[in-house]
Amino acid sequence: MFKKILIANRAEIALRVIRACREMGIRSVAIHSTADNNSMHVRLADESICVGPPSSRESYLNMPAIVSAATIVGADAIHPGVGFLSENAEFAHMVEDHHFVFIGPSPEHTSMMGDKITAKNAVKRFGIPVVPGTEAPVTSDEEAQAFCHTTGFPILIKAAGGGGGKGMQIVHDPAHLKEALLVARNEAKANFGNDQVFIEKFLVNPRHIEIQVLADNYGNAVHLGERDCSVQRRHQKVWEEAPSPVLDDKARSDLGELVIKAVKGLGYRGVGTFEFLYENGQFYFIEMNTRLQVEHPVTELVTGIDLVREQILVASGEKLRFTQKDIKFKGHAIECRINAEDPETFFPSPGKITAYHPPGGPNVRIDSHLYNGYTVPPHYDSLVSKLVVFGDTRDQAIQRVNRALKEYVISGISTNIPLHQRLCANPVMASGDYHIHWLEQWLAQTADEQN
Ligand code: ADP
């Protein structure tokens, strides 16, 4: 087992890994930028080391500085967390070349799944249904026109190397195709350093349902059920839950089995998530994330399995300690992503926390790096807390979310807590009957009504 893990990340996810390390008797090392000197992950880790100035490019994305830090502190493994370098195959290679264990899949799997086109082609071989789309990057307007002619509009142009819901272009009619391709290529190049784009059929009313997997180095793999992340804004998840309000046990185990066939066939190791859109009873694979997900706690609450602990165990070479039939699902879990942002305009709202009181009570979990007097820096992601609750039923979980949100005090900055409160009171949310575009449509409609 590892003796010391360096965590190449910050904020709540770094804290999550520190907590797992401490429970496993592993020393943890926090890295940080100069803007994060007072961050809770730095305070709670056993050791910390500064890797650069505030800009992510020069600190949390600075591969040589991070690997040097691991050498200086004598770590034996590096956990990349989520975001930043967690899906960067070059980083995984560099980590391994310097004889540290990368807590994640092989760099080959990271690069295969990091390109959405190769990812779709790879899983298709195992019978996984994918969103209809071009099977190679689109290189000319004629190719794009030909695809759209057969599929019909609307279509979605996506960056092959895209992520974080960025850089997608919806096109509703042929007249706008050429211009949208140009914009998509430029954005892809600027954001992801790779101008390859491809086209998919745009699904009008799908849900987002994803399957969590866990695999060891010896060909053993299990799935841990699904998470429903259909409440989204700008292709980013806002509220996630497990189980999905629309899947029954058979649909869950059928899809889970199919996914596990692919995991085993690919020889994948570690934790990972297969993301699907689900419309009219059909699943369509969109991408695989080869890392822990922000929303992993909901799976932990309904399965009782500590995903970070298991991830560390398999990375250290241990065999999976359970088989599929040992995994039992119980109750309902919901996660609200609490962002430092204006609840109406969604503009980021960094600044000093003047009062902080997190909710508690039965079955309420807060994963957050906030504390009274902490200053949320303006340089990074706006996620400041994950409120996660467990209930026997979905109704009970929603009531518990509502109760916990009422207790939650975060003063000095704006957050989207009021938005989550409005969601709890919304009959559509209670019905479970919505799709990935619903939240934006509802927000637009209520904004219109106010004007
Ligand atoms: P990213 O890697 O940027 O997160 P994804 O491919 O995972 O991109 O897609 C993010 C979100 O965008 C999905 O959850 C869904 O809301 C939307 N989306 C992706 N592909 C489609 C599609 N073909 N039709 C409709 N919406 C889509």
3D structure, described in words:
With 451 residues, this protein is an alpha+beta fold. It folds into three domains: 4-94, Rossmann fold (3-Layer(aba) Sandwich), CATH 3.40.50.20; 132-201, Dna Ligase, domain 1 (2-Layer Sandwich), CATH 3.30.1490.20; 207-450, 2-Layer Sandwich (D-amino Acid Aminotransferase, Chain A, domain 1), CATH 3.30.470.20. Helix content is 35%, strand content 25%. The protein has 15 helices and 20 strands. The chain has helices at 11-24, 40-44, 63-73, 89-97, 107-114, 116-124, 141-151, 177-192, 249-266, 296-303, 307-315, 394-407, 417-424, 427-431, 438-450, and strands at residues 4-7, 27-33, 47-52, 77-79, 101-102, 155-159, 169-171, 197-201, 207-215, 221-233, 236-242, 270-279, 282-289, 332-339, 351-352, 355-357, 364-368, 375-376, 383-391, 409-411. Strands 13-12-9-10-11-14-19-17 form an eight-stranded antiparallel β-sheet, sandwiched between helices. A five-stranded parallel β-sheet has the order 3-2-1-4-5. A hairpin with a 5-residue loop joins strand 9 (207-215) and strand 10 (221-233). Helix 4 (89-97) packs antiparallel against helix 5 and helix 12 runs antiparallel to helix 13 (417-424). The protein is globular. The N and C termini lie far apart (60 Å). Bound molecules: adenosine-5'-diphosphate (ADP). Adenosine-5'-diphosphate binds at residues 131, 156, 162-166, 200-203, 208, 232, 235, 275, 277, 286-287, 436.
